[in-house]
Amino acid sequence: MKRGIAIERDRYFYGSVLSLAVPLALQSALMYSVTTLNSIMLGALGEVPMSASAIADQPFLIVSGILRGLTLGGAVLIAQYWGKGDTDAIKRVLAIAVRSSVLLALITAVAVILLPTQIMGIFSTDKEVINAGINYLRIVALTYVMFAVSNAYMLSVRATENAKTPLIINLVTYSVNIFLNYGFIFGKFGLPKMGITGVAIGTLIARIIELSCVLVHMFFINPHVRMKISDFMHKDKVLFKDFLSYAAPSMLSEMIFTIGMAAYSVIFGRLGTTTIAANTIAEVLHRIGSTFLSGLSGASSVIIGKTIGSGDIQRAKLQKKTFNVLGMGLGIFTMILVLSIKNLVLGFYNIAPATHAMADQMIIINGLCMIAFAYESLYVTGLQVGSGDTTNILIYTTVIMWGIIMPLAFAGAFWFKFSPIVVFIILKCDYVIKGFYGYFRTRGSKWIKQVTRDKEALQEH
């Protein structure tokens, strides 16, 4: 008699996956809905405002990616200490994550505010696009530090299996963000008509509300890890060393990835405004599909981290196999979803026929790549993060992106003069290669790291 696939049979496991994945997916959907609706609303004003917003968002995408990597490294420790039941260590790691994030965000914000034109010029040569995005960029830079605190805290809360609180906070703040953006763009609800600058102001107000909610929960509501201001003043050499061991590779990995994404924008920016607009629209559909995948990868990171922290390595391996199956199913679902709604989404945009045709082709390519993206997401931001395999992630994501994909894309775009669609396909191969490597990397035991210390070892500080 044939044996079935070796996967989890415990209902509690699937309940845990759903309780984490669904709120995380909804949270991601809320985040992307702001970007999507901004793109659609600005697209109604023309291609220049839409392209200017996309270009001006690149510095934030870079810094937010770096901050995400930094705090994901801390979340590795928090998830495994959660499995051990050591909440004191969790508080100490959280304080380190917040301090480090604020410092990095502050440096970036100052650079962006002082040099907006130069920074916009990195991503586009179109002076009209650059001029349209300067005020937007300066205003949005004021949100970087607020985002740093909120991001560090909410990722840490998520690592303790609480995905509902970040969802509720995001539901409030993103709803306000969408309402204000619509009002400021078109002059509705008694608000002044400000176009692209109004989007920046709406985002700033929403970030202030988000930070206020985070601070209230952090200091007064959190039932497991109640922080005090004095916790952030406390130096911790032991845990800071551990934090750097896992956060530094994770941060560098995300930094390399987000800079790579920015480099993609540089490539498209030099292929013309039509290509920028088409890629912006195609990414909207990609983000819709990726919301589901981010929920699963986030859940896998927390669950695997907790299981390893508890010391049950064999069960962690079984859970990994189960997530592989779930990843395949979700990848197929998102592929069908993206291809099914592409015409509906394209209908919202006021764009030239050439832009429409290029965006349609890019969306089809994105849809066909969703299975590969499912596995890339599952390993790079999920299983391997939760297991503490962050150094390996850094190595292989760097080699694949900058050693293979980026040289091919630049050569194709500027040397061989390939069409934008061919260049787009080359860039999407990044997901395929990473997905294959991640699958084979996690077949043994080398990817599983025990990153926690016993309480006695932490008492030396």
Automatic annotation (TrEMBL):
> Which compartments does it reside in?
Cell membrane
| Entry's Gene Ontology BP terms | monoatomic ion transport
Q: Does the keyword Mitochondrion apply?
A: no
Per the UniProt record, which residue ranges are transmembrane? 12-32, 60-82, 94-116, 136-155, 167-187, 199-222, 243-264, 284-304, 325-351, 363-381, 393-415, 421-440
- CDD domains cross-referenced by the UniProt entry: MATE_like_8 (cd13134)
Single GO MF annotation: antiporter activity
Q: How does it sit in the membrane?
A: Multi-pass membrane protein
Q: Which UniProt keywords apply?
A: Antiport, Cell membrane, Ion transport, Membrane, Transmembrane, Transmembrane helix, Transport
Q: What is its main location?
A: membrane
Record's GO cellular component terms? plasma membrane
Q: Does the keyword Transport apply?
A: yes
* Pfam families reported in the protein's UniProt record: MatE
Similarity comment? Belongs to the multi antimicrobial extrusion (MATE) (TC 2.A.66.1) family.
Question: What does the UniProt function comment say about this protein?
Answer: Multidrug efflux pump.
Query: What is this protein identified as?
Result: Probable multidrug resistance protein NorM
Native species: Neobittarella massiliensis (ex Bilen et al. 2018)
